[in-house]
């Protein structure tokens, strides 16, 4: 699962690396546009994770308790709901992109690139939902190898197709890798990057469906289980809705955050948006993903193992599984934090050599690197508790911490005290310390071991 999560992060990194090789006159607005487009893309992950967590929790309990029919029914319902939900999410993406660009105070050119990027990817959302939710269901059954191989294939397709369809000549190692497809990158670049990503999601969705139909570990997708079942759909939804609302609250806080960045940008530009700050923020987020996704992966492992142990009536081993995965996540993310604090300039140059990015990104990476151990504590415990169905407490802790600590701190340090983008990131980082300690408190309480899903 660690490999799978790293591959998921690599899709976004590849898109930004290719965009960083666009012609000089459009590279900054393109990166700003794709950066805001990434926020819309996060909405898809939040939307799909709600259903995926419900399916994963039920399948894990069923596999641990030996009730295979429940596991197969949950898998079939998750697939059907995922396809329907994916279509709705695609429509929502197309509707959200322009309001988010307005909140972020993007220039007209950056808004155009943002709209192109998001609406192109939106067409692939049913396949992305199938891939994401299907993978989480397979995790509940203890199958992690095949989803990771699929994620590698998705990356290969994304790298090749996004590069070819963009018409961009990649700058690498001081040289240039010429694109064999004769397309004008100024006209086709952002669309080609998005089209390649959409194609990779289609491939991933089809591959996940094939794996589920062939079956893994006594779990196999049967066509008869795809018809909507009121009882099983409700079980999945009951577990998943708090998770979806939690994610929606997190995503909504991003709107405020982008507004803060827009305010800082206008201040830097003396009343006009200063190009590059959104791109700098998203470059930082992209690298941060390579640290928190290992914690996320360890949390998924913790939830799958703990769910199976609870299904088998062994809460002691469920608690041990979550804590062991948490320690591993803290070690990995702590090491990444050291890299962020010492190698910010080099990491920035991998994506962009624009002066505004080289000035801002190392400072923001230092802020997030300093709290990676606490980030890992919260991330892994959150995913582990989520995997056993403790989604209500996860919702309360996350929403309370974000809206009572995260946003006020980011505004105070970044906007009110005039510390700019780095100040905003220090506010975000300090809140992660608070949230990690709150999840540790919940983990030490005994209530989650008695939950029914």
Structure description:
The chain has helices spanning 2-19, 24-65, 68-103, 108-122, 125-140, 145-166, 185-214, 230-268, 277-311, 315-342, 344-351, 355-369, 372-387, 391-416, 420-444; strands at residues 170-172, 175-177. The protein has 15 helices and two strands. The chain has a two-stranded antiparallel sheet. It has one domain (2-450). The protein is mostly helical. 82% of the residues lie in helices and 1% in strands.
List its salient traits.
453 residues; two-stranded antiparallel ribbon; mainly alpha; globular; 15 helices
**Number of DSSP-assigned strands:** 2
Percent of residues in helical segments?
over 70%
Largest beta sheet, briefly?
Answer: 2 strands, antiparallel
Order of helices and strands: HHHHHHEEHHHHHHHHH
- Taking all Cα atoms into account, the compactness measure Rg is 21 Å
Oligomer: single chain
How far apart lie the N and C ends?
A: 23 Å
Mean pLDDT: 85
Given as residue ranges, the uncertain stretches (5+ residues, pLDDT < 50) are 269-273
Percent of residues in beta strands?
A: under 5%
Shape: globular
Total count of domains = 1
Global structural class: mainly alpha
In DSSP terms, counting alpha (H) and pi (I) runs of 4 or more, how many helices? 15
Strand order of the largest sheet: 1-2
